[in-house]
């Protein structure tokens, strides 16, 4: 699940933070022997895959494609810092300036800058290629992180912190670039692509479980700047390793697919509003849980929610999903999310037990990955060919906007109506996302292939 006040899970991971492509290029990448059945009419209909053996077999087949393990390893290294940067910045700034308000304002500025810059960076990636754009964009973002570290260490004026952290907005959507590679490799195999999308969403959840814990440990065990420094090194190293895998890189679309922004595509604006409401679920749930627990147990409880989403994503990727209307599948996922998000509310208002709340969060998290996988599948089907990174980055930006709004609303509700009552906000946000998705159905369905 995307995290509050963090750089995008360039991802979430929007990412997870997830695709069923509409690519029309010739199928130039042959399927490796025994990894995919031969194409039949351009669509595959694999048999059911259930149980732990079926789950493992699905992912073994996925990574049997040459080059996939190498680019996945590099991308994983690059994505772990996405869960580190905001936590590291808050700890580092608060320790030096003795102001959590300043630390929060700086990270919020970075979030706003990313929302503006990330779609433009993604458009360049689509137009000129991943390696050509991602490496210099990452280098600039790393310089911003190092500048922030230096400013804090020297106790520079507060305005320099805002300027330095805003420079990190050029960080490319690493999760989106990885999903684009899967889409290119499996553009004629929806079953393999579904597995890849679910895997990517599970990776998003994993990174946002590990990242904050690693950042907090480094800052406490070494020195306050250690989290930011380590994150910058991991980001640059991971992107360099990822960009070096040229054999699996999608070909650039020199004119951006021959179209303007993907937001001009019928159905996309309405779907972005759905993502905005979905992001509010994530942001409010995190803040309300922190307010309700108000102690060190809050971290493990939130990790349980991410763990539930990660496990559900892996299972969801190993089963055969129903064909046909993806929009209806999204409605089903949002309905399940609305119902499951009520469990933490019932637990907090009822027993008040942290053990019961942990179980409720674990179960509630299981709706996250399937919803994100299905939603991003719809994003890709609506996105014109050659603009895939931009389309997914717009979805991540909408999620981040929703996270910010949900965090503010959840925090206000918890403060004025009580922390237990604050759990009504994620339920209401999920219900709103469901209503918006149902209302947007006509336009979206008309645009789908």
UniProtKB/TrEMBL annotation:
Task: Write out the transmembrane intervals.
Answer: 76-95, 101-121, 133-156, 269-292, 298-318, 330-349, 355-379, 391-414, 420-440
Query: What is the native source organism of this protein?
Result: Streptomyces lavendofoliae
* Endpoints of the signal sequence: none
Q: Which InterPro entries match?
A: MFS, MFS_trans_sf
Q: What is this protein called?
A: MFS transporter
The protein's UniProt keywords, in alphabetical order, are:
Membrane, Transmembrane, Transmembrane helix
Where do the segments described as Disordered lie?
1-56
Which molecular function GO terms apply here? transmembrane transporter activity
